[in-house]
Amino acid sequence: MKMVKLLIQVPQPIKEKLDAMRTQGTTASGLIRYLLEEHFKQAPVMGQKGR
């Protein structure tokens, strides 16, 4: 699967928490990717009409 870059901004307190997780071996990219995958597994697709 081809990966694309996504630039996001977060508040300083969240950045500090992400930095702390980095020392434990979890990258911000990995965490965000995991959370998005879990979200889209659970959430029904909204706004699409059947044909």
Structure description:
The chain is mainly α and 51 residues long. Helix content is 53%, strand content 0%. The protein has helices at residues 12-23, 28-42. The chain is elongated.
Task: Characterize the overall form.
Answer: elongated
Give the tally of β-strands: 0
Which structural class fits the helix and strand makeup? Answer: mainly alpha
One letter per element, helices H and strands E, the order comes to: HH
Distance between the termini: 29 Å
Q: Which segments are poorly predicted (pLDDT under 50) over 5 or more consecutive residues? A: none
From the alpha carbons, calculate the radius of gyration and give it in angstroms.
15 Å
- The residue-averaged pLDDT reads 88
What's the helix count? 2
Portion in helices: 40-55%
Q: Proportion of β residues?
A: under 5%
Give the secondary structure arrangement, pairings included.
Blueprint: H1 12-23, H2 28-42
Descriptive keywords:
51 residues; 0% strand
Task: Summarize it.
It contains 2 helices and no strands. By secondary structure, the chain is an all-alpha fold. It is elongated and about 45 Å long.
